[in-house]
Amino acid sequence: MLPDYSPRETISMSADLPIEHPETYPELVHLNDPAMLVLTDFCRFNPVTITAEKTIDFALEKMKYSGIRLLLVVDTNERMVGLISAYKILGAKPVMLEEAARTDRSQITVDMLMTPRSQIKVVDVNQLRDAKVGHIVATLDHIKESYLLVVNGGVIGGLFSASQISKQLGRNIMDLHEPARSLAELIREIG
After folding, report:
1. Into how many domains does the chain fold?
2. Is residue 22 included in any domain, yes or no?
C-alpha cells in the first residue's frame, strides 16, 4: 500500500473517443510550399544525440532503432560538437581507418568520423520566414549537404533533411541537378 497517495476519481469511457496523435509531416509538399512544412522542429521532435567516444557500430544501431540517418554528436553538457551520418559510417572511411591504424572496426569511435562543428553550415530561423521548400532544396544543393541545421535564438532548433524532403516531395532531391548516368536512369527519368 502506498502511503499519502489517494486514488484519483475515474469515469466510464464513452464509446467513441478519438486518439490524440502528435503532429506529423504533411504527406505531400511542393517546392512552392512553406519551408517550415519540411522542418524537423526540435520543439516537437526530440533530436537523437550521441557522445563522441561511442563506437560507430553503436551509433549505427542507435540510428536503426530511431529510424534516422543522422545523429547530433554532443559533449557532456549537451553542446553539439559534430554530426555523424549513416552514410559516413557505412562508407569507405571506416575501412581506411582499419587498414591505416591496424585497428578493428569495433574500436572506431564517432569522433574519428564525425563532421566537426566548425565544418557544419546552419541557417538562422529568421532566414526562413518567407522561405519555400524550393529555397531549402537550393540551399542543400548549394552547400552540397544532405542536412541543414536551423538556429533559433542561440540554440539548435531543428533541421532540414534531404531524405525527409524527398519523401514529402515524392522524388529524390539529391538527384534534381544531376544528369542521368546510364540508359536505365534516363528511362526512369522520362518515364
Report:
1. 1
2. no
- CATH number at 65 reads 3.10.580.10
pTM of the model: 0.77
186 assigned to some structural domain: yes
Q: Is residue 13 part of a domain?
A: no
Which SS3 state, helix, strand or coil, does residue 70 take? strand
Residue 11 lies in a domain: no
Q: What are the φ/ψ torsions at residue 120 (nearest 5 degrees)?
A: -95, 130
Closest by Cα among 82, 92, 85, 81 to 60: 85
Buried b / exposed e over 32-67, threshold 16 CB at 10 Å, is: ebebbebbbebeeeebeebbbebbbeebbebbeeee
List average pLDDT for each run of 10 residues in the chain, which is 191 residues long: 71 72 78 95 92 97 95 94 95 88 89 95 94 95 94 93 93 67 55 47
